[in-house]
Here is the input.
Amino acid sequence: MSVTVFIRYQLDPFKRAQFEEYSKRWLTIIPRCGGDLIGYFMPHEGTNNIASALISFESLAAYEAYRKRLRADLDGMANFNFAESEKFILAEERTFLRKVIL
Here is the structure.
């Protein structure tokens, strides 16, 4: 069974540009580490401090293997460190979704 991870980010609304830079870096890192990146989504209208990302995997085991590769990836670690040092992400939530099929 495939699984899609929905990540909800609460941002510092005055640091959206830093989050967008962070998101763009993941566009190459995530696929290289084994995730099927559906996309990162920035606030456009309405709420200005909520962003999201969707990443699919063949299974939860594939997700766990991806997380391990991500933590060993130099660019991935640099991006995690960038987020931590700049503090533009105030909160992050993960929800694991499955597709509804007949």
Notes: The CA atoms of residues 35 and 57 lie 6 Å apart. The chain has three helices and four strands. The chain has a mean pLDDT of 96. The first helix runs from residue 16 to 32.
